[in-house]
Design a protein that fits this description.
The protein is mainly β. The chain is built from 2 helices and 28 strands. The protein has a 4-stranded antiparallel β-sheet with strand order 3-2-1-28, with no helix packed on it. Strands 4-5-6-7 form a 4-stranded antiparallel β-sheet, with no helix packed on it. Strands 8-9-10-11 form a 4-stranded antiparallel β-sheet, with no helix packed on it.
Length: about 350
């Protein structure tokens, strides 16, 4: 069997009437037919994140907590969080750690840690950043990463709450959003859509990345673009991706698993838009070029899933149900729409 691609959809409050904002779907490499994955998952299932440990273990974050598959995603079993099911067990991010631990981030800025694959969980003490904005939805831990050079250095992006950091494996956390808040003093970085607070855009974190080529350097994708910290989040620098792309709303940033100097970024007009683009940098963000040659994205690009097994395989997913993939390093692309009516896409992953 060829490599498998997964895509996940979940509730999205701006979805058109009649669309299906839930589901986990898979397809084999070379195939164009998506299959619904249901074995062991809640019915219906909402999937907001997908993570892997090796080739056979796949984790998905659902509205009823995290689920794990040990057979490559054919079947899943629950990893019940304390208080499940409940409003704060909606999972937005999962981070398998090199030390065997597992972190799960939920709405409500909660982060749980397990050291025994979900048999037991500890709720970690995570502060709510001073600049966090109360919107029409709960704050959520939308992305977590660990520095490849030091697994104890962990960063979490909060939507719409900035960034927090742990230097001791999650035992203690610090708000590192102060440098982002400094930008709000400039009119160009003021943005308010769902609140009356100008820092809303700068606190609207979407993704984080760290390259093994630059330990301690954190890349952030948020509503206002791409930012970089060279000092573990103590200060932040605007990367000004608008020099290379007419679209600057940044939803995802990923380091290639095959080249530590290569970054991918998902750039669009806004959270709700009719245009998206995939960009690549081969010099850690100094310069960027459009990577999705010949692709017509009809909605906001949400996630990027570079393959762990092949440097030539990259998939990405747009908000309203389009998935795009290349198997030849970007020379050619396939458009792979999810089953009719599927919208609210939040996750994509390729083996």
């Amino acid at each position: 069997m060829g490599a498998t691609v997964f895509a996940g959809a979940a509730f999205w409050d701006k979805a058109a009437s009649g669309t299906r904002t839930q589901g986990l779907f898979s397809l084999d490499a070379g195939s164009a037919e998506w299959r619904a994955v249901t074995g062991g998952l809640p019915d219906p299932v909402e999937v907001r994140c997908i993570a892997r440990r090796g080739t056979d273990t796949v984790y998905v974050g659902t509205q009823a907590g995290p689920y794990r598959s040990t057979d490559g995603g054919a079947t899943f079993s629950p990893m019940e969080l304390p208080g499940s099911p409940g409003p704060d067990t909606v999972v937005w991010s999962i981070l398998p750690l090199d030390d065997g631990g597992l972190l799960v981030g939920t709405q409500g800025t909660l982060i749980y840690r397990s050291d025994d694959e979900g048999a037991n969980w500890r709720l970690l003490s995570v502060p709510q950043p001073a600049g966090a904005v109360q919107m029409g939805f709960p704050l959520r831990v939308i992305r977590m990463i660990a520095d490849p050079s030091n697994a104890k250095e962990i960063y979490a992006g909060l939507e719409v709450g900035g960034v927090v950091r742990s230097l001791d494996g999650g035992e203690s956390w610090t708000d590192i959003s102060g440098g982002l808040m400094e930008y709000v003093k400039q009119d160009a970085f003021k943005s308010r859509i769902g609140s009356d607070q100008d820092q809303e855009g700068m606190m609207d974190s979407h993704a984080l990345a760290i390259s093994p080529a630059k330990p301690g350097t954190v890349f952030l994708a948020n509503r206002m673009g791409l930012f970089r910290s060279d000092d573990k989040g103590d200060s932040w620098n605007f990367m000004d991706v608008g020099r290379f792309s007419p679209l600057t709303y940044a939803r995802d940033v990923i380091v290639s698993p095959h080249d530590p100097n290569t970054l991918f970024a998902a750039l669009s007009i806004a959270a709700l838009s009719d245009e998206g683009s995939l960009y690549r940098s081969t010099d850690l963000g100094e310069t960027w070029n459009r990577f999705d040659n010949g692709v017509s994205m009809e909605s906001t690009l949400m996630n990027i899933g570079p393959s762990l097994s092949s440097a030539d395989r990259v998939y990405c997913a747009a908000r309203q149900g389009q998935v795009f993939g290349t198997e030849d390093g970007g020379a050619t692309w396939r458009t792979l729409p999810l089953p009719a009516g599927v919208s609210g896409v939040y996750a994509v992953d390729s083996a």
